[in-house]
Structure to design on (129 residues):
């Protein structure tokens, strides 16, 4: 994976702005405006390019605190992206070569499960400073 770390909202916004127009894609990811569970079997590895990481590797255990200044919920499509807050502080950023969508991905670990989650970043995605 790339060692590139995305550290600011401006850097993330710039990547979203240059992503190009998303077109129809048969990558199997489907719609994921908010956080969506996506099994490892459905993740189209061959089409995905690692763009960078939002995770700070100098922090052993990133916070689980969330940032919702407008009362949104974690899984809402209009929930803001806040790099220093959960779950964004545990994310990798990927681009689909077929449709050019940018996708955030992280893994949720529960007591008895592992859940891979994906969220698309688009022009309307709110990104907080």
């Amino acid at each position: 994976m790339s060692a590139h770390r995305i550290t600011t909202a401006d850097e993330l916004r710039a990547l979203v702005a240059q992503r190009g127009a998303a077109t129809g894609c048969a990558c199997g990811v489907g719609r994921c405006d908010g956080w969506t569970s996506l099994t490892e079997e459905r993740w189209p590895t061959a089409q995905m390019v690692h763009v960078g990481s939002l995770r700070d590797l100098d922090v052993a255990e990133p916070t689980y605190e969330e940032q919702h200044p407008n009362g949104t919920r974690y899984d809402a499509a209009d929930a803001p992206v806040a790099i220093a807050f959960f779950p964004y502080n545990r994310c990798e950023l990927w681009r689909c070569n077929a449709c050019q969508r940018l996708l955030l991905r992280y893994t949720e670990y529960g007591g008895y499960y592992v859940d891979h989650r994906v969220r698309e970043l688009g022009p309307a995605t709110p990104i907080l400073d």
